[in-house]
Amino acid sequence: MLVGRARHQASELSSQLRKLGAEVTEIPFIEIRKPHSYKALDSAMKKLPEYDWLILTSVNGVDALWERLAKLHLTRRHLRHLRVAAIGPATKKAIEKRGLRVNVVPEQYVAESVVESLRNQIAGKCVLLARARVARDVIPRELRKLGANVDVVEAYETVIPQASRKRLRALLKDPKRRPDVITFTSSSTVKNFVALLGKNMWRGRHRPRKERLLDNICLASIGPVTSSTLRELGLPADIEAMEYTISGLIKAIVTHSRMMNPQPLDGAND
Question: pTM surpassing 0.85?
């Protein structure tokens, strides 16, 4: 299996897959970097008393926000008045680890469900949304329609790790090392994967056989948004997690393995 998470985040998914007997290769499709400027984030931090809600949509956002709080000599005490929404359990855990209570986690771990969870609590409120530089605009757009005042600030950015390009192509061209499954944990990992492959590397009948690098490889998606991005870029979502978490993705891969292989991954019956 090929795990394409950012290098510092790959270990959880990889270790769980290895425990189940999978051979795992890690090649990051995404790299997390500091933003070009902290101006907007710092400005928001300095006016925290004006906000009613804080929304965080990833562990990366949590890490970046708390790193900046420390730089500005602010503590969790400056956040205690805020009601906090986290997009999913991993983000919730990261926030609570820093001593802050999380008030809302949506039933489904996608932006649309965040909006639905806040629908009756947000009118007239001031909201701080800290996220990646490039992200879907569902949350700010829909919350503004509900009457909220939303400030969106860049806490980090995601970029394509250029060092992965040669490694990825070499892996897919090697018949002895080709993965059976490639995992995608966000739309960004999908887009960057496509960019790393290059436009002439698609599977498809219109391409010479040697260029169909993804033939007989299953693409595993963490949820419907990631699956939609795969399809938009001409790729199938062969496997999709029912619960949009790393654990859910692993369960979906195990279920698929059971269906396709009479001898599933070790531990699949645990």
Answer: no
